[in-house]
Amino acid sequence: MATLLLYAPHAPRREALIELLSRWPGLALVIAKTAHDYNKALADRPDAVLADLDEPLAELPAGQCLQLLPTAQGAGSLARPIRWQQIASRLQLMIGRSDEEMEFAVGPYTCVPTERLVLDAQGNDLVRLTDKEVQLLRLLASSAEPVGRSELLEKVWGYRDDLDTHTLETHIYRLRQKLERDPADPQILLTSEGGYRLAESDTGPLS
Known about the structure:
Elements: E1 2-7, H1 11-21, E2 27-32, H2 35-42, E3 48-52, E4 64-69, E5 77-79, H3 84-95, E6 104-106, E7 109-112, E8 117-119, E9 125-128, H4 131-141, E10 147-148, H5 149-157, H6 165-179, E11 189-192, E12 195-198
Parallel strand pairs: 1-2, 1-3, 3-4, 4-5
Antiparallel strand pairs: 6-7, 7-8, 8-9, 10-12, 11-12
């Protein structure tokens, strides 16, 4: 289990980050609200540091560190406002999570691949998925454009002569039954331009 030290003196931003990071399975989160807490926690040698500050750290800690600042200060920082996916991508590199383990947004929800679960905005279990459903949603979430039916069939199921779009349509139907308030009027898993896409996450930027 990787240990992440979150140093965040600003209370509202800290609470937003805690809420997001707490959904990340296999991550031990250590929280520092003050410089004293931060220096004390560093002595335990966390695997990575995420620092949300108004000014850059005077001295960078040993190991992996990502700073969230008003203005970016080099490769080890991001400028606010920052979307969660930007932070998650950088943390993935820092603590060695694989793409298959990474959480991702499904509209207003969060998919946890390692548990095959979709969580609601409060972090509660919403629905359980099959492996193919996770793969299908991950492929859609990774693309900024609609993904065509043939590409989905090839990448999720592998090319086989006996597969046709009924296989895909069945999975789309089942996912909509699980995710949509009204499956007949989908707002999350959308049909678009000969394929499918996910609605944008309503998780706003960290500002």
